[in-house]
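User: Now give one protein:

AI:
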Amino acid sequence: MQRTWLASFILFSLILSTCALYYPDLTHEDFDSVIDGSKPALIELYAPWCGHCQALAPEIERLGESVKNNMQIIVAQIDADKDKVLSERFQLQGYPTIKLLSSRNTTSDWIEYTGERTATGLVAFIQNHTQQSIKLIPVETFVVELTDDNFDKVVMDPYSHVLVEFYAPWCGHCKTLKPQLEKVAKTYHQVKGVVIAAIDADKYGKLAEKYRVTGFPTLKYFPAGKDKKPMEYDSSRMAIAIVEFMNRQVGLDLDVGGELLQDAGRVEVMDNYARDFITSNISKHESIRQAAEEEINNQNLRGQLLQNARFYLTVMERYSKNGGDAYLNKELSKIEKELKRKDLSPHKRNNLIRKQNIIKFFATIKDSEYLKAQAVGDALDDDDAN
């Protein structure tokens, strides 16, 4: 009896796990098998380049994740810019287009949604036409909401680098920026001393006037330190560009989402000195190292980027004193062994990866120089043979 119950439970769990109700990448190839009229379905036809679609994306995703607990509603997203079959089938006129199939046992009775582009608005629309109840999952946000009461405490903190968005609730560009800014905030939410914040400048007009905000959205960066003179950010409003900007200001090497960049640790100006160091005679090593140190002092490096740059000097010094190539190989082996430890903290793991990338760069230069020398030697041998 117990085995029968257990088998039934496992089978039921497998059915639930394989019965997807949120399809973020539905195509015409699967459309009719997924949306067959057995359940009401809401679809969004979008284009990746569409600003309104980008603003809507987190709302649709929230709805999609929420219907997984309902089991009676299908939510799907279709890249209609790529999928011309479905674009023509629905006679698409613009992006985003949201449609609801409310009736069972038919796939032709689609109702177009023209309401507010929020998860709450979509839930009300679905419930009105299907009588299905959907409980939205809570919104997780990493953007600090500012007011008159907390602005100075958060933004003027001398130990914090703060990026502030001045927005207006009615502003379309602000709505487009919102999911991008959320990605930026998530990138830095575990980094002490970096804050991504936003303030309703329509509501708190005096603060907007104080910081000379004349349009929406406006992004201003307030550096750490006693002098909190803001710098306006006027580049791309995509998360990747804002993260690159913040990395430069704060001195970090993070990718969007908070993971390390693929070449984390590397500093472009120091790469040049590393090349000179490895390709020069050992008698010139110390003068190159000193020149590299002087360059670091002249560069406006800070934070983790400064630590990364100074590690180049450490590698140069130890390379000269501890056996050259043997030192590089020994250090790489040691780091690889350390990275296999399961008890490593994320902070220590990241620092090891940074060091590994820098040492690998030195080793790569050495290997490439060896291959060049070997190629020259082979060419000379061929000439002698001829």
Summary: The chain has three domains: 30-130, 144-250, 268-374.
